[in-house]
Amino acid sequence: MRYLLRRLGFFLLTLWAALTLNFFLPHFMPGSPINSLRAATRGKVPDAQLKQILASYGFKPDADIFSQYWDYLGKMLTGNFGVSTGGSSLGQPVSKMIGQSLPWTLGLVGLTTVLAFVIGSLIGTVAAWRRGGVVDSVLPSVFVVTSALPYFVVGLFLILFFTIDNTWLPGSFNYDNTIVPGWSPGFVGSVLQHAVLPAATLLITSIGGWVLTMRNNMITTLAEDYIRMGRAKGLSDRKVMYNYAARNAFLPNLSGFAMSIGFVLTGAILVEKIFNYPGLGYQLYNAVNSIDYPMMQALFLLFTVAVLGAILVCDLLTVWLDPRTRAKG
């Protein structure tokens, strides 16, 4: 119970610090929502009227920064993210815009991250168990190269090969505009077809890290005494590999997986921009370009909560899976 309370206290403290940075960092950026609206209206609307427009949407540009900070904290804690102040999306509720983009990011980035983690861990397990074999000699070297490639390079190459040179797969958006959205086979097939290239981009660039990490953890674990004991007891190689070695080597990867959830979301900004995929990364890119404070703050908060929540769940899973973490020092 004490461990759980400590972790919850750390979660709340980190969340407050993230909320504070989330508020002040956009205000330090060059430009302002007024400048963005002035550019969108091409200077035809007086600044006084622009301020009135922003004030009607809950944004108070003339208030001091600390008053805005306390107002911001109250809104974030109550889930009131306000409305967008971007030029093209002015007046639209931020929560509604995020709700429209979140399923696409979860379906693409979330599923791809889990697949990369699971497949990479399995390949790393087999490579370490059969060290020096074909899998260990070929795949880790290949994935070292692919994991070093930038997201946008892989995405542009896939678009060039599969969309421009060969019209095999669509290279933009999330489904065919000629199809009415619904649970029809045509719409589902179109969504899956449009997700192939961005998902492949994320898999190619992220799976290598999990392969190398799991392989190194397995090699270290295989030298432990309990592995020798398992073999001495006459257990099968399969049981020793998965129940003894892989289970213990897998634990350090959980923390990395929790951290990667938020980082992959932010890394997907480039992928979603290249493929015009209407997810959270694409929304964040547009919000930064239009100096849309409410949208940026809501998205940063969502990314922060996702990372902190994943780390908290990871800590609890580690305590449950590894009895050593429950022992007193």
TrEMBL record:
<keyword id="KW-1133">Transmembrane helix</keyword>
<keyword id="KW-0472">Membrane</keyword>
<feature type="transmembrane region" description="Helical">
    <location>
        <begin position="249"/>
        <end position="271"/>
    </location>
</feature>
<dbReference type="InterPro" id="IPR000515">
    <property type="entry name" value="MetI-like"/>
</dbReference>
<comment type="similarity">
    <text>Belongs to the binding-protein-dependent transport system permease family.</text>
</comment>
<feature type="domain" description="ABC transmembrane type-1">
    <location>
        <begin position="102"/>
        <end position="314"/>
    </location>
</feature>
<protein>
    <submittedName>
        <fullName>ABC transporter permease</fullName>
    </submittedName>
</protein>
<dbReference type="Pfam" id="PF00528">
    <property type="entry name" value="BPD_transp_1"/>
</dbReference>
<feature type="transmembrane region" description="Helical">
    <location>
        <begin position="104"/>
        <end position="129"/>
    </location>
</feature>
<feature type="transmembrane region" description="Helical">
    <location>
        <begin position="191"/>
        <end position="212"/>
    </location>
</feature>
<dbReference type="InterPro" id="IPR035906">
    <property type="entry name" value="MetI-like_sf"/>
</dbReference>
<feature type="transmembrane region" description="Helical">
    <location>
        <begin position="141"/>
        <end position="164"/>
    </location>
</feature>
<feature type="transmembrane region" description="Helical">
    <location>
        <begin position="298"/>
        <end position="321"/>
    </location>
</feature>
<keyword id="KW-1003">Cell membrane</keyword>
<keyword id="KW-0813">Transport</keyword>
<keyword id="KW-0812">Transmembrane</keyword>
